[in-house]
Design brief:
This protein is of the alpha+beta class and about 90 residues long. It has one domain (about 5-80). The chain has helices spanning about 5-10, 55-60, 65-70, 75-80, and strands spanning about 10-15, 20-25, 35-40, 45-50. Strands 1-2-3-4 form a four-stranded antiparallel β-sheet, covered by helices on one side. The longest helix has 8 residues, at about 55-60. The relative contact order is 0.19. The model is unreliable at about 75-80 (pLDDT under 50). The structure holds zinc ion (ZN).
Length: about 90
């Protein structure tokens, strides 16, 4: 899946900077965008809900298969330091 296709399925998408977006999480009642989307250097899509939803929950709400869309669904456990932390300022 291309990141553009993923973003098209999400609500409230905002680009924070090139290759990084926030959106409303589809897996919980998200009024303040807590889903972070980032494009890794190798083209991998990184997804993280700061409310704690799992990648599987988010993908199932979006109707996509984590294993098809994300080469490494366990990226958060394997590469914790590579995921960019979004600043929580307004
Ligand atoms: Zn969530």
């Amino acid at each position: 899946m291309r990141v553009e296709e993923l973003l098209a399925r999400l609500k409230g998408v905002k680009e924070r900077k090139p290759g990084q977006w926030t959106a409303r999480c589809p897996a919980h009642n998200d009024t303040n965008p807590s889903l972070s989307i980032a494009l890794a250097d190798d083209g991998e899509i990184l997804l993280k809900c700061f409310a704690g939803c799992s990648l599987e929950e988010i993908c199932s709400k979006l109707g996509i298969e984590p294993k098809d869309s994300f080469p490494n669904p366990n990226w958060s456990r394997k590469r914790p330091s590579t995921f960019p932390r979004l600043p929580l300022r307004r």
